[in-house]
Amino acid sequence: MTAETALSHFAQRIGYPLDAFQRTACERLEDGRSVLVAAPTGSGKTTVAEFAVYLARRERDARIFYTAPIKALSNQKFHELCAEYGEQEVGLLTGDVNLRGDAPIVVMTTEVLRNMIYADGTEDGAGARSPLDGLAFVVLDEVHYLGDRFRGAVWEEIILHLPQSVRLVALSATVSNAEEFGDWMHAVRGDTDVILSEHRPVPLYQHVLTSQALLPLYVGRDGEAVTARAGRINPELRMLEGGRASGGRARGEGPRGGRESSGYRDRGRDRARGRAPVRRARRVSRADIVRALDETRLLPAIVFVFSRNGCDQAVRQCLFEGVSLTSRDEREEIRRIANAEVRDMSDEERRVLGVREWLAGLERGVAAHHAGLLPTFKTVVEQLFQRRLVKLVFATETLALGINMPARAVVIERLDKFNGEQRVPLTSGEYTQLTGRAGRRGIDTEGHAVVVWSDGVDLEALAHLAGARSFPVRSSFRPTPNMAVNLLQRMDEARVRDTLELSFAQFQADRAVVDQARELRAEQSSLEGYDAAAARSQGADRRRWQDRARKLRRRIERGRRQIASRTGTIARTFDRVVSLLLELGYLERNGGEPEVTAWGELLRRIYGERDLLVAECLRHDVLRGLDAAGLAAMCCVLSYEPRRDDEGEPRLPGGAAFVAAHDRVLETWARLDDLFERARLPQSDMPHAGLAATMHAWASGRPIEEVLERSGIGAGDFVRWSKQTIDLLDQIAQACETAVVAGLEEDRLGELARVSREAKRRVRRGIVEASSGQ
C-alpha cells in the first residue's frame, strides 16, 4: 500500500477531513521522519499521534509507546486506544499500574519510559527480550513540559537516549521557539520536521464579566464582538476602568451581541425562574457567574479558581444560593453513575469523604475538580462533564493539562495567583493554556474565555494575555547522581560528556556546541570502527587503520577542547557530580575511567529529587529498626513535598525507633547538603515529616476515616502521597535486591527489601488500591 493510500485509508477511518498541518505531519511520518507538531489546544494534534499508532499496527512486529505527563492523561488515552484496537492490543504502565507491558501499543508516563531506557541492556539474564525491541514510534504528548522546572529533564533524557531508529511524534502547545526546539531535535536525532499551525479551528472570543453584563473584550467597527487581534478594546470596558460608569449593557443577544443584553437579562426574568435577582454590587459572586453563563448559553463551562479550598467553597456557595442546572432525568442519571462508584464505601467512609455534599453538587450540575479530591471523585466529575450532565466545574489549573473535558466557555476568576510565596500575575503561557480548554473541535462552533471584572483588572495587561499566541520553552535539564551512574553504566566518560553536550539546555546556551557535539559522536563511532578494523587486520593494513584512528582521535580531542572552551556548562556540572560520586564510593576509577560500583548499581534504581539521600540511607543502614509501618512513614518523609502555603508542623509517629531513624535521616541530609554546596551543585529541601504520622497510622491498618480526620488533609492529597510512598518503597525493594545480586550485605539488604514489599502491601489498600488505576 502506498503512502498516499495508507493516509487516505486512515482519513476514511477517522471520518473527518484532515487539516493541512495534520496531513503534512502524517505524510512526513509515512516518509520515515520524526515530527514536532506545535499547534493550539483543541486543534487536533492527537490525530497525528493516532496516525502513528495506525502505522505501527500495519508494520509487522512494530510497537509504539504513547507517553503522557500525568497519570490521568495516560489513563484516558489507554481507554481510548482500547476502544479502538481492543484491550489485548494495549498496555498501561504508570508506576502503580503495570498492565500488558509487552503489548504492541503501550501507554505510559514519561518517567516510566525514561527508567525503561536506562534499564535497557543492563538487566540480569542474558538473552532477555529488551522492552524496547521492535519499538518503531514514541509519542511525546505535551512535550512543552520539557520546560517544567521539576520534571522537564525527563523529556530531554528520552529524546537524547532513545535508539536512533525510533521515530518521535512530539506534540506541543504553540510555543514561540518551536523552530529552535525542532532544530535541536533534528540535531540530536536527525530527520525531524517542525509542523506549525497557529490556526484555531474553533474561534475563541474574549469577554469580561461585570456585575451587570457580559461584555466582549474586543469589538469591531460595528461594535460586534470579534476575536483577539481582530478589533479594539471595548470602549465600555474603558469606561469601567476609568470609573466613569458602574457597568453597562452589552449590545446583542448571546455572547457575541445582537438585540438584547448579552449578560444578565433582567431581574424580572430571574424572578420568573424562581431565582434571586442579580446583585448590582461591583463584586461578582460565584453564583452570579453560574447564572450569567447559563443565561448566555455558555454552558458547559470551567471556572478556574487558583485554590483548592476556593473550588470547594464555590460549590457550597452555589448550593446555598439554590443554583440548579439539571433536569430531573439528568439528576437520576447522575445519581446512578455516582452511586455506582461509591457503593462499596461504608457509612463512616462516606461521611469523612463528604460523599453527601459531593452528590448534592453533582445533582445540581456543579462540581469541584482539584488535586485534593479523591481520584474516584475526579474521574466521575470528568465522566459526567464529558456527557454534559455536570454543566459547571470549579477547577484549579491542573485541569488545563490536557484532560479531555470539553467546555464551551472558560472563566478565570482573577489574573494573578499565589505561587507559594506571593501573588504573581498569570503569564501569557498560563492564560493560553487555561483558555485553550474553551471550544472543542467537533463539539462547539466557537469558544469563549471570560475574565471576571474587579477593580484591579488592567485592560492593557488583559489584552496582552488574550492576544499572546505562544510562549517559549526553556530547558530545565541538569545532570543528577542517578543520571550520572545510569549513563556511565552505558558508555565511557567522554561519550557521556559528548551526549550531555547535545542537551537542549546546552543547545540554547550555544547552538554551535550541539552541532559540533553531534559530529563528535559520529566521529567516535567511526573511531570504534577503525579500532575494530585494525584489530582484525595484519601487517600494512593494520598500520593504515591505526594511522587513521590516531588522526581521528586527535581530531576528536581537539573538538572536545573547543567545546569545553566555549561553554560546557552541562558537562562541567556532570564532572562535579562524578567527583562527588567518586568521593562517596558510588563510582571508582579503573584505568582512568569512572566505573559504577556495586553501591552505584543500587543508586541506579533510585529516581527523584532525593536520589542520593535515599541511596545513602540504604547504604549506611540509616533506616535500621523500622518495621513495615515505620518504613512506609519514613518513605513518606523522603518523598513528601509540602505545599509552600501549607507546610504545617512535622508529625512524627510514636516510638523510639522511628524518632532515632528520623534523626539519622536528617543528619544524612545535612551532610549531603554540605557536600552539594561545596561541589556547587543544586541542593534539595530538607525532608519534611508532615505526613509521617498519617502514613504510619494507615500502614498500621487504621481506617481511612480516622486517618483523614487526624491528618487534616484531603482524600486526594492522601492518595497522591500514598502513591508516591508506594513508588519509593518499590524502588527501595528493587535497589536492595539489585545490591544483593551484586554481592552486597545479603542479610541486611535482603531483609530491607522484604520489609519494603510488606510496607507497600500495607499502604496499597482501601481507597489507595481503588485509586491505583486513576
How would you sum up the major sheet? 8 strands, mixed
Distance between the termini: 39 Å
Whole-number count of domains: 4
- Which runs of at least 5 residues are low in confidence (pLDDT < 50)? 122-126, 244-253, 257-281
Shape: globular
Q: Supply the helix-strand structural class.
A: alpha/beta
Work out the helix count: 32
Annotation keywords:
alpha/beta; eight-stranded mixed β-sheet; single chain; 774 residues
Describe this structure in words.
The chain is an alpha/beta fold and 774 residues long. The protein folds into four domains: 3-196, P-loop containing nucleotide triphosphate hydrolases (Rossmann fold), CATH 3.40.50; 204-298 and 408-467, no CATH class; 481-596, no CATH class; 598-770, Sec63 N-terminal domain-like fold. 51% of the residues lie in helices and 11% in strands. The protein is built from 32 helices and 21 strands. It has an eight-stranded mixed β-sheet with strand order 4-3-5-2-6-7-1-8, with helices on both faces. A seven-stranded mixed β-sheet has the order 10-9-19-16-13-15-14, with helices on both faces. Helix 13 (347-353) runs parallel beside helix 29 (704-711), helix 21 packs antiparallel against helix 22 and helix 26 (628-639) packs antiparallel against helix 28 (692-699).
